[in-house]
Design goal:
With about 130 residues, this protein is mainly beta. The protein contains 2 helices and 8 strands, in the order ααββββββββ. It is about 5% helix and about 35% strand.
C-alpha cells in the first residue's frame, strides 16, 4: 500500500504498522501571506473582461491551463506585468506593445498574457489569482 511506503503515524518498527491504517488527522490551518506588491516602475497592461451574454462564459488563461466560468454580468480584469528597461517588455509576443493575445470561441475566451506576473482581479480590485 502507498501509505506504508510513504510512512504512517504508527512507528515503522512495530508489526502493527504493517496492518493498521493511519488515523485521519485534522490538517493544520493554512495561513496565507499577503501578496507581494510589484514594482510600480514596471509596465502594466490591464484587460477588462465582462460577460455581457446570457450564458456563462469560460475565461481560459494560457499557458497556465487555468479556467473560470463567468456568470452573465460578471466582470474581472486580467493584469500582466512586463519587464522594465527592455525594448520588448512582454515576453513571448511578436510585437513589442502586445501584452495579450485573445482567442474567442463560442462561450469561451482564451487569454495569453505575455508578462512575467499575471493577476486576475475582480470588479472591486481584489486579487483573485496570481501566476508568475
Amino acid at each position: 500500500m502507498f501509505w506504508k511506503r510513504l510512512g504512517s503515524p504508527v512507528s515503522d518498527e512495530t508489526p502493527a504498522a504493517v496492518t493498521e491504517k493511519p488515523s485521519p488527522e485534522q490538517p493544520a490551518p493554512v495561513e496565507l501571506a499577503p501578496p507581494e506588491p510589484w514594482d510600480p516602475a514596471l509596465p502594466v497592461a490591464k484587460l477588462p473582461v465582462e460577460n455581457g451574454g446570457q450564458r456563462p462564459l469560460e475565461l481560459f488563461l494560457e499557458p497556465y491551463c487555468w479556467s473560470e466560468w463567468l456568470e452573465p454580468g460578471a466582470k474581472v480584469t486580467v493584469v500582466t506585468v512586463g519587464k522594465a528597461d527592455t525594448e520588448r517588455p512582454w515576453s513571448g509576443s511578436t510585437v513589442p506593445d502586445e501584452p495579450f493575445e485573445l482567442q474567442y470561441y463560442a462561450d469561451q475566451l482564451v487569454v495569453w498574457p505575455y508578462g512575467d506576473l499575471v493577476l486576475i482581479v475582480d470588479a472591486d480590485g481584489n486579487e483573485l489569482y496570481r501566476f508568475s
